Every structure is written in C-alpha cells, then in structure tokens.
Amino acid sequence: MKALLVYPTYPDTFWSFKHAIKFISKKAVHPPLGLLTVASMLPDAWDKRLVDMNVEILKDTDLEWADYVFLSAMIVQKESVKDVVRRCNKRGVKIVAGGPLFTAAHEDYEGIDHFVLNEAEITLPRFLADLKRGEAGPLYVSDEFPDIKETPIPQWDLVSMKKYVSMNIQYSRGCPFNCEFCDITVLYGRTVRTKGKEQVVRELDSLYVSGWRGSIFFVDDNFIGNRRELKRDVLPAIIEWMKKRKHPFTFSTEASINLSDDEELLRMMAQAGFDSVFVGIETPDEESLAECNKSQNRNRDLVSCVKNIQKYGLRVRGGFIVGFDNDTPSIFERQIDFIQKSGIITAMVGLLNAPRGTALYKRVAQEGRLLEGISGDNTDFTTNIIPKMGFEKLIDGYEKIINGIYSPKPYYERVKEFLKEYTPLEKRSFQFDPGSFRLLFDNIAALCKSIWILGIRDKERSHYWKLLFWSLFRRPQTFPMAVTYAIYGFHFRKVFQSCF
Ligand code: B12
Ligand code: SF4
Fold it and tell me: In 150, 168, 176, 465, which residue has its Cα 20 to 30 A from 133's Cα atom?
C-alpha cells in the first residue's frame, strides 16, 4: 500500500511567521507532528511519503503515486484542504482525513472517503483493521481519550528538517481549565494525559540522532497541567539528558499563568533549557475574565506575573482577546497599556471567536448572536459572534491596538524596555558538530539579511539601527535577540499592513 501524507497550506497569518523565516531561509516554522505520529502508526510494510505543502509543492505525480492520501489540517487550512480534495477526487485517489479540522466539523467536507477522527491512537487501528478486511467505513469516531504512554515516536525521516525553524515534541494532551472560548478541552479533554519520562527522553534522542540542533516546541495544550509529575520525573530527566548531550536544544511551550506562582518549576524549566512560553493572558479586565471563565487569571497582578516568569529567562508570548460582552470602549487603550508595560513582544491580539463545540458557541447560538462560518484565524479582523459593542467599534478599536503595539515606534520601544531587564539563559558552550554550525550560519545569515532589508531598504531603518547599537554597547548579551525581534517586527507589520 502506498500512503501519501499531506499537510495543506496555511495562509500568511500571525503565527505563520512567513515574513520572518525568510531571513533564515526556512520554509515553515514547524513540521506537522500529527501526521508524523500517524505515519508511525501505519503498518511498517506500507510505502509512506509526506508532503507538507508549506515547504514543498504537491505535484500531480505525487497523487498519482498514492493509493491513499492521509490528510490532516487545522481550521485555517480549510481552503487548501478543499483544493487537495478536489485534486484527489479528479484522479480517483482515496482520502483518509483526520486531525482537529475534521474532528471539529467533518460534516462540512465532501469528497472524503474515510473520516478517521479524534485521536488516532483509538480510531486508526479500527480503520486499518476494517481496511485489511476490505470493509473500511466512512466514519470512525471515539469519545474516549487514549492513554498516550503508548504513542509511538513520530516518523522524523519523512520530513526534511532543514526546511523548518523548530521541531516539535508532545509531552501531554488536555488542559485542566475550562475557558469558555477554547476548544482544546472539547478536542483533548480536561484530564491531562502525559507521556512517561523515558518516552520523552527517547523522543529527544530521536531528534538528536536525526541531526537536529536548536529549537524544540513542546506542543502541549498546557505544559504545566500536571505539575507534580513534571517536577518529579520529566524535568529532571530532561535536565540530565541536556547536560549529558551538552545542551543541543532550546525549548519553548504553552502554559497557564499559574506557572508564575511556582518558583521551583520556573527554575527547573530554565535549567532544562526553556527560553520561551506562550501564556493566554486574554484581558486585563476582571469582568471579562469572569465572563470567559478564565479563573486562573483572576485576582492577580498579571503584569507582575509576566515579569516574574521573564525573570527566569523565559520570554513570554501572550494571547489577548477583545470583543467580550463586558468589554467597554476603554478596553483597547488598556490592552495597549498592558502589553507595553509587560514587555510581551509577541502579543497575539485577536477578536473573540466561538469555535464549534465550545461553551461559547452554545451560548451565543442561544442568544441569537452566532454567525455562519469561522475563519479560524482570530487576527484576520473577522468574528462569528455579533459583538455587544457593535462591529464598527470593535474593529476600530482592534486596529487601534495593532497600531499601538506594532507600529515601529511603540514596538521598538517595547523591545528595548524588555531587553533592558532581560537576562538570557546561561550561555552554553558551542558544540563543534554540523548541526550547531548550521545554526550559527543561519544566525549570521539572518543578521546580514536584516541589515540589508531593515537597516538599508526599510523606511523605518533609524529604529533598527538605534536598537542594534543600543544593545551592542549597553547590553551585548541581548544582541542576537535584538536582531530577532527586529525581524519579528517586520513580520508583524507585514501581516497587519492594513493598520499602518
Ligand atoms: C503546535 C500547534 C501549532 C503550531 C504549528 C502547527 C503545526 N505545523 O503543527 C503553530 C504555533 C504554528 C500553530 C498555529 C495556529 N494554530 Co495551532 N496548534 C498547535 C497545537 C498546540 C499542537 C499541534 C500538534 O502538533 N499536536 C500533536 C499531535 C500529535 O496531535 P494532533 O495534531 O491532534 O494529531 C492527533 C489527532 O488529531 C490525529 N490526527 C491528526 N492528523 C491526522 C490525520 C489523519 C489522516 C488521521 C487518521 C488522524 C490524524 O492523530 C494524532 C494522534 O492522535 C494544537 C493543539 C493540539 N493539542 O494539538 C493547536 C491547534 C491545532 N491550533 C489551532 C489553531 C486554531 C491555530 C491557529 C489558527 C491560531 C490562530 N489564531 O492563529 C494558528 C494558525 C497557524 C498558521 N500558520 O496559520 C487549533 C485548531 C482548531 C481546529 N478546529 O482546527 C488547535 C487544535 C488549538 C486550539 N484549539 O486552539 N499551531
Ligand atoms: S488554559 Fe488555555 S488550553 Fe486550557 S482551557 Fe484555557 S485557553 Fe484552553
């Protein structure tokens, strides 16, 4: 059997970092971990190939080669999904579809032979058994959440690692919280399921022996969902592994704000090599936090919490939302103020949207405020909710925030304020191996390209030079970060160009 695993194209969005990764000649930030995991669950005897359309073109000859196309996608990829389905249908290639897009809304997609939904650990073996008997059905679902202790190591040899900025690992699935707008708990449940420490170490090993060096993203919904196990087993194992291998990786992840309350955990994460963490801050407004059931963010000084995390060398990336029912017109200024004060450089501010299956979806539908269709990209100025404050006010205010945080002056000011206080992770010694040399070369190439694009061609070049000289002479240890953030700023301005 010949299986072609296909990951459709995503648009030019905030998280695509498309305008930034060109500086290091990469094609995409992350490989599709879901498909790589599914690949490991397919029979060994099958011929397997993977085409991530974000890094290479899906050719007709690829489709003609395949007996089955295994398709995975997130909601933002839906346009490209339709195109792939059309091309497969035209050539009579059978399609097996799974992953979050289809699990959330498979009934919206025609032309697909088999939907194998929810987590593949449960549904894929059933599909494969039926297929073997020649009785594969159209729909496989499960309301159980599998134990991921048996999940195999992703089949890394199917991707060309050098095309990506970062590799991925998953330690846990699920999140104990229950925010009204979030579909994580719908898709992966509220009980946090974890892998064992040996399993995590084996995954690190597999990336290391594949030659990978540099950044690894723990794609957990909430990395600190089970703090006890993390501190007792997994982090000590990672710390030891990193020491033994001479620190070949840096890690990033996603976590809830209560990370800030646990100094021991913060210290261990820094020691393990974590240098950034995405945190859902959402809003500085207490009533809006109550409205969306974000209990973990309430009754605390959120700016201090962010600063406390940053104190350990973990850069905080933040998620922010406007459009809550309790939001008043002052929210836009307050969000700008918060972001500038907290020093969160990568601030993803989005409009409140209601993904299918969430408590918010049900509530706004009952209130008659739900609109058809959701783009999945909450930074594209669209929402499927009729906002209480009215569309016009919301969009105006949203544009004001984007302008207030990403136009060059406030953006570079924020970067400088952040770098003034920031202490990067302890410097690790350089390893003389091909992976580390490639990383060094990428960084030098990025600096050269940034000089040409941001320092010479860009009309905002004075901000760039001021930041670089300031960091070079005042805080030289932050220089690589100053260059990185200048490049990020360029990406954000491109994504939101209509606001400037
Ligand atoms: C890493 C990640 C990203 C990364 C990289 C994506 C990538 N290339 O992998 C980044 C940061 C870029 C990202 C961005 C976004 N993401 Co994202 N992301 C994730 C995250 C945290 C982990 C994905 C992952 O690797 N999981 C691990 C693998 C093993 O799990 P899995 O993919 O679910 O696969 C399992 C099953 O689904 C199934 N399966 C998967 N594919 C297939 C295929 C077949 C054929 C079969 C049979 C089974 C199957 O089997 C696997 C094993 O059980 C998920 C949350 C999550 N827990 O998955 C959100 C998630 C996928 N992202 C989501 C969203 C909405 C986004 C954004 C649109 C957010 C935004 N507002 O901009 C952006 C858009 C990206 C863009 N470029 O435009 C949603 C998707 C919701 C949906 N219904 O589609 C999720 C579920 C999070 C959420 N609820 O908010 N994301
Ligand atoms: S803490 Fe994050 S992942 Fe957990 S339910 Fe809330 S938004 Fe979703």
Answer: 150
Instruction: Compute, in angstroms, the gap from residue 74 CA to the centroid of ligand 1.
Output: 6
Reading the block at residue 477, the tokens are: 């240890």
pLDDT digits (tens, 9 = 90+) for 39-69: 999 999 999 999 999 999 999 999 999 999 9
Nearest to 185 by CA among 195, 176, 198: 176
Nearest ligand 2 atom to alpha carbon 183: 8
* Number of other CB atoms surrounding residue 27 within 10 Å: 16
What are the CA-CA distances from residue 238 to residues 150, 201, 244 (Å)? 19, 7, 10
Q: Starting from the CA of residue 112, give the closest ligand.
A: 1
Note the pLDDT tens digit of each residue in 458-473. 999 999 999 999 999 9
Distance of alpha carbon 111 from alpha carbon 276, whole angstroms: 41
Query: Which among 1, 5, 12, 15 is the best mutation to test ligand 1's pocket, defined by most ligand atoms within 8 Å of the CB?
Result: 15
- Identify residue 193 by its one-letter amino acid code: R
How far from the centroid of its chain's Cα atoms is residue 442's Cα? 22
Residues whose CB is less than 8 angstroms from the CB of residue 61 and which lie 6 or more positions away in sequence, other chains included: none
Predicted TM-score of the model (pTM): 0.96
Angle between helices 408-421 and 479-495 (to 10 degrees): 150
Q: How many CB atoms lie within 10 A of CB 271?
A: 18
Residue (of 361, 363, 281) closest to 322 by Cα position? 281
* 347 Cβ contact partners less than 8 Å away, ≥ 6 residues apart: 317, 318, 320, 339, 405
Q: How far is CA 213 from CA 156, 247, 313, 462, in A?
A: 14, 9, 20, 34
Which residues lie across from 98 on neighbouring strands? Answer: 72
Q: Give the separation between CA 229 and CA 217, rounded to whole angstroms.
A: 19
